[in-house]
Amino acid sequence: MSLQIKVFCAGPLQNNVILIFDDASKECFLFDPSFGIEDILRVIDQNRLTVKAVLFTHGHFDHFAGLSYLLSKLPAEPGIGLHADDLAIWRDGGGSRQFRALIEPPCDPNIMLEDGQHLILGNSEIEIRHTPGHSPGSVIYYIPDLNTAIVGDLIFHRGIGRTDLDGGSFKSLQESVHRRVFSLPPETILIPGHGPNTTVGEEMENNPYVGSHSDLKLDDQDFSE
Known about the structure:
Elements (H helix, E strand, L loop, with lengths): L2 E8 L4 E8 L4 E5 L6 H9 L3 E6 L5 H4 L2 H7 L5 E5 L3 H5 L19 E3 L4 E4 L2 E7 L8 E5 L4 E5 L2 E2 L2 E2 L9 H12 L7 E4 L5 E2 H7 L19
Parallel strand pairs: 3-4, 4-5, 5-6, 10-13
Antiparallel strand pairs: 1-2, 2-3, 7-8, 8-9, 9-10, 11-12, 13-14
């Protein structure tokens, strides 16, 4: 297996930006490029990588803020992937209006992601799972060869994404986590949109919002991120 993964903490909201590349083909996928991606561009250049696609876990502004700058620095335009259910949020500035800091949306995606879709990088497959809750079009990316899932703002280490933004739903988030995350092997590494990595098993056992010991009601929620 020649698949490699690097995680960068970028921007004022400390977003996790993920780079996955195939050593043999030198092709890569970049996930959720936020503010301040110069270090990522240096790694792409140093390793002589070709960005095959830029993929998004969801359409909030802090996850696409670096896309326009990234595209201006690449020699060829990559595919841009987003679930269609987040396209309206994307086009409206990714929720930035609610924070009184309007971020102009970048160009529209040209790849509409779907539940159950498989993307190919080198000899590896990446499975897309639709996981609404934090936003209507949130998705996670499961990479079996790396024993890893990129989960965006759906779930964090002992936390979950907020559901009080447009299109959010705690009930949908809870269902997404139980059906689409907790169905993965317990040792699967979860890379969230912010904060440290965790595992499926850790969150099943210890997450106070969706784990096995969760007994909170909707009105009791204290959401992170």
